[in-house]
C-alpha cells in the first residue's frame, strides 16, 4: 500500500493539531494556577480587540486556570472629565485627584469600565464579577505624594496600597468566577483613594501569590531605549529583577508604574511578570500557551 500525498486540507488540519499540542505542557503547568491580568485603558480602546481579550480570558478559565482581571481606564476617565469640563492633569504619571476628580474616577472605573469588562466576559459564561478595591477591604491605601525632580508634590486623593485583603477574590476564584477589579482603595482615614491600575495589579498578584502577572498595554514590551530607534530587536525579551531595578530611574512616565509593578510582583514571590502588547490579537494566549512567549518577561534572578 502506498501512502497518498497529504491534501492541502490535511496539512492545514495537522498544523492546527500541532498548535494545540504545543499548548499541552503549558496547560499542564498552569492548571489550577492564578494569573493576574492588567487590562490597560489604552489596550481596551480598540473595539475590534475587545472580544478577543474576553475570549482569551474565558479560554484561560475553561482551560482550568484562575484568571483575575485588574482593569485600567485612564483614557475613559480623561474623556469623561473633558465632557464635564474638568481639566486632567498628571504628575510623574499619576493623576492629580481632587475630590471632584475622585468622584469621576470612581464613577468611570466602577460604574462604566468594570461593567463593560464584566459584560464582555459574561458572553462566554457566568464568570465575570466586578469588585471595587474598596469592597471587602480588598485594597487599603495611604495618601501618596508624587516625586517630581526629587521633590515630594501633593497630588490629592492618590493612594499607595499598604494592605491587601484578597479573601473575597479567593472566594470568587474558588467559586469558578473571574474577578474584575477596579483600582480604587479605601483608607483607614475614611478617604477613598485613586490607585494606579498597574500598581494595584502588582499588589494583588503578590497577595494571591499568582503564577504570573501579565500587564497588557499599547506597546510591544519594554524598549531598552525610548523612544525606540525603530529596530524591533530593541524590545527586551527577558530581564531579572536586579537588571530592572537599575533601569527604573531612567524609564519615562507610562512605563514606570508597569515596571515597578512587575518588580514588586517578582520580589514578592510571583515567578514571572510580563508586559505584552494588547494590540496583538490573542496576545494573552500567545504568551501563556506557546513556546516562544511574547513581550517582556521579568524573572526574580
Ligand atoms: N522604555 C519604554 N518602553 C516601552 N514603552 C515606553 C517606554 N517608556 C515610555 N513608554 C511609553 O509608555 C506607554 C505605556 O504606558 P501607558 O500609556 O500608561 O499605558 P496603559 O494605558 O496601557 O497603562 C507606551 O505606549 C509608551 O509610549
Ligand atoms: C493615580 C492614577 O493615575 N490612577 C489612574 C487609574 C486608572 C489607570 O491606571 O488606568 P490605565 O491603566 O488605563 O492608565 C487614573 O486616574 O488614570
Automatic annotation (TrEMBL):
- Which residues does substrate bind? 73-74, 95, 194
Question: What pathway is this protein a component of?
Answer: Amino-acid biosynthesis; L-arginine biosynthesis; N(2)-acetyl-L-ornithine from L-glutamate: step 2/4
The catalytic activity of this protein is classed by the Enzyme Commission as: 2.7.2.8
Keywords in alphabetical order: Amino-acid biosynthesis, Arginine biosynthesis, ATP-binding, Cytoplasm, Kinase, Nucleotide-binding, Transferase
Q: Where in the cell is it found?
A: Cytoplasm
> Which sequence ranges form a coiled-coil region, renumbered to this chain?
none
Start and end residues of each Aspartate/glutamate/uridylate kinase domain: 33-277
GO MF term list: acetylglutamate kinase activity; ATP binding
**Where is it found, in Gene Ontology cellular component terms?**
cytoplasm
User: Where does this chain mainly localize?
Assistant: cytoplasm
The answer on whether this UniProt entry bears the keyword rRNA-binding reads no
Superkingdom assignment: Bacteria
Enzyme class comes to: transferase
The catalytic activity, as recorded, is: N-acetyl-L-glutamate + ATP = N-acetyl-L-glutamyl 5-phosphate + ADP
Q: Site feature Transition state stabilizer: at which residues?
A: 38, 258
Tell me the InterPro entries matching this sequence.
AceGlu_kinase-like_sf (IPR036393), AcgluKinase_fam (IPR004662), ArgB (IPR037528), Asp/Glu/Uridylate_kinase (IPR001048), Glu/AcGlu_kinase (IPR001057), NAGK-C (IPR041727)
GO annotation, biological process = L-arginine biosynthetic process via ornithine
Q: Which family does it belong to?
A: Belongs to the acetylglutamate kinase family. ArgB subfamily.
Annotated function:
Catalyzes the ATP-dependent phosphorylation of N-acetyl-L-glutamate.
**Which HAMAP family does this entry report, sorted A to Z?**
ArgB
Q: Which NCBIfam families match?
A: argB
What is the recorded name of this protein?
Answer: Acetylglutamate kinase
Organism annotation: Actinoallomurus iriomotensis
Amino acid at each position: 500500500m502506498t501512502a497518498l500525498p497529504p491534501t492541502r486540507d490535511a496539512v492545514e488540519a495537522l498544523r492546527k493539531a500541532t498548535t494545540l499540542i504545543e499548548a499541552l505542557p503549558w496547560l499542564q503547568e498552569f492548571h489550577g494556577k492564578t494569573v493576574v491580568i492588567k487590562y490597560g485603558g489604552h489596550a481596551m480602546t480598540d473595539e475590534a480587540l475587545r472580544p478577543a481579550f474576553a475570549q482569551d480570558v474565558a479560554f484561560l478559565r475553561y482551560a482550568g486556570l484562575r484568571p483575575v482581571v485588574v482593569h485600567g481606564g485612564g483614557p475613559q476617565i480623561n474623556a469623561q472629565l473633558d465632557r464635564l469640563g474638568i481639566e486632567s492633569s498628571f504628575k510623574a504619571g499619576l493623576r492629580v485627584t481632587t475630590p471632584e476628580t475622585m468622584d469621576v474616577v470612581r464613577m468611570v472605573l466602577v460604574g462604566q469600565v468594570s461593567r463593560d469588562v464584566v459584560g464582555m466576559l459574561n458572553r462566554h459564561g457566568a464568570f465575570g464579577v466586578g469588585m471595587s478595591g474598596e469592597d471587602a477591604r480588598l485594597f487599603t491605601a495611604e495618601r501618596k505624594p508624587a516625586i517630581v525632580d526629587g521633590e515630594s508634590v501633593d497630588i490629592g486623593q492618590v493612594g499607595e496600597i499598604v494592605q491587601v485583603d484578597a479573601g473575597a477574590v479567593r472566594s470568587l476564584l474558588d467559586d469558578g468566577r473571574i474577578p474584575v477589579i477596579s483600582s480604587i482603595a479605601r483608607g483607614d482615614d475614611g478617604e477613598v483613594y485613586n490607585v494606579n491600575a498597574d500598581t494595584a495589579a502588582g499588589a494583588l498578584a503578590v497577595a494571591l501569590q499568582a503564577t504570573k502577572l501579565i500587564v497588557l498595554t499599547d506597546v510591544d514590551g519594554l524598549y531598552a531605549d525610548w523612544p525606540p530607534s525603530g529596530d524591533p530587536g530593541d524590545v527586551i525579551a527577558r530581564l531579572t529583577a536586579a537588571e530592572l531595578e537599575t533601569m527604573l530611574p531612567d524609564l519615562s512616565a507610562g512605563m514606570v508604574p508597569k515596571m515597578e509593578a512587575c518588580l514588586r510582583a517578582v520580589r514578592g514571590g510571583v515567578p514571572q511578570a510580563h508586559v505584552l502588547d494588547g494590540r496583538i490579537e490573542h496576545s494573552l494566549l500567545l504568551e501563556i500557551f506557546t513556546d516562544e512567549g511574547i513581550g517582556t518577561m521579568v524573572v526574580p534572578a
